[in-house]
Every structure is written in C-alpha cells, then in structure tokens.
Amino acid sequence: MSAVEIVQLGNPVLRVVATPVTEVGGIETQTEIKAMQAALASTQGVGLAAPQIGISKQIVIVASRPSPRYPQAPLMEPTVMINPRFVALSEEKEKGWEGCLSIPGIRALVPRYTAIEVTYTNIEGHAVQQQFDSFVARIFQHEYDHLEGKVYLDRVEDNQDIVAESEYFKLIV
Ligand code: NI
Q1: Amino acid 1: pLDDT
Q2: CB-based contacts of 69: which residues, under 8 Å, 6+ apart?
Q3: Would you say domain 12-171 falls under CATH 2.30.29.30?
Q4: Which of 70, 94, 111, 148 is the most buried (most CB within 10 A)?
Q5: Run of H or E including 21
Q6: What is the distance in A from the centroid of ligand 1 to the CA of 145?
Q7: Rounded distance, CA 47 to CA 53, Å?
C-alpha cells in the first residue's frame, strides 16, 4: 500500500459529520481500516480518525503509547472502534495537552471528561463496551470529535492555552 497522506486543517473533510459504517466486515471497510493502521504506524500519533485520511466514516483508532510526541502516554493495544459512542461517567473535566496530526506544530490545553464509557463495534463486528480514564479517555474524545467535524482547537477555552510544539517540549521536561 502506498503511503497514506494525513489530511491537514482546512480540508473540508475535517469539518463534516462522518457517516456510520454499515458493513463492518465488508472489503471496503477492512481496506480503509488497514489504510488507517498504516497511516498511524508511520507517525508518532496516539490515535487517528478516518476523516484524517480523507474517509468520512465513523472509524477511529485509539493507540496510546509512549513516544517523543507523548512521553507520558500509557501503553495499550491499538484499538479500532467502529461507530463509537460515549457517555461521561462523571461531570468532572480536566485540562490536558493535546496535539493533532492534522494540525502540526502546535499543542493546546483542552478540557475533557476524565472518565467515560465507550460503546463501539470492533474489527470483528462485535459490540464492545469499555471504560477509559485520564489520557486514554482524552484520546478517545479527541478522535470522536473528528467524527463530528470538530477539532481540538474548537474546545480550547483561552487562546493563551495554545503553544508552539517547540515550547511545549520545554514545558513537559
Ligand atoms: Ni486529531
């Protein structure tokens, strides 16, 4: 498979609501998921949504792992989530740093629910229910926003919470 390009902010596909997947086991869906996995593997990202490779469908991958981009990230098995939904398990939100492969070079503090319950269809077509907290819950909410045509900058409460990535790396060490 040739290299998959990550769609950048300004591309309209990042601003539309993604369509639910109807045929999870279909060859088209499976091919799209493989393209997403390949795209994510070629980056230091911790998650990816289908619209980020130009596919306006409700598929995300959550793949927390420590990297130079996110040194504190916990390690988890990369998880493909089809048609995901979530509910907050408490009203509590916490500000934390986020970046996005579609918006290179900057980071911002974003308020997110600290504990959530997610339901989705997995790659084998089975319904799954899972609870996530802290950083993994944050990744999920970030990727879910992409399916709604939102990006994390839309949720920043104060422009002063936006920094250049070079400054962010000074802040976290
Ligand atoms: Ni993103």
Answers
A1: 47
A2: 44, 45, 46, 99
A3: no
A4: 70
A5: none
A6: 8
A7: 12
